[in-house]
Specification:
about 130 residues; two-stranded antiparallel ribbon
């Protein structure tokens, strides 16, 4: 079959990923959604690229500021309320952990898609396209 990626095997029998899987992994780590675009999953790729752009340029600076305020608990005496800064900082830390978990999940999804498209075992994914 022409164009189908077959997994290579080393001498020890350990499967070595093909170049498309490695490229998908690298692109997904650099910018979320580009691995999906490489796998011709246009809708997911565009949505994830837009989501990543929003997080990087809009959400991340606010989260970094909230974590910085968590460490300092205020810079202006009498005006910054440490309890509110503490709550905002802890919420930001929780949001960063959730974002990191989703980021890893999206990268795993992008890396498993080439296997699925090229003769690997299909995955059970009923909750998204």
């Amino acid at each position: 079959m022409r164009g189908a990626a077959t997994p290579l095997f080393s001498q020890g029998g350990v499967p070595v990923p093909d170049i498309k899987t490695v490229l998908t992994l690298v692109l997904s780590i650099i910018w979320l959604g580009t691995g999906h675009l490489l796998n011709k999953q246009w809708f997911k790729g565009v949505v994830f690229c837009g989501l990543h752009g929003f997080i990087v340029f809009r959400g991340l600076p606010a989260l970094v500021h909230a974590v910085r305020m968590l460490v300092s608990l205020g810079e202006i005496p009498g005006q910054d309320h440490s309890i509110f800064l503490l709550i905002q900082g802890l919420t930001a830390c929780l949001a960063l952990l959730i974002l990191a978990a989703f980021y890893v999940g999206f990268i795993v999804d992008a890396c498993e898609s080439p296997r699925e498209n090229h003769g690997g075992a299909p995955r059970n994914r009923p909750w998204y396209p």
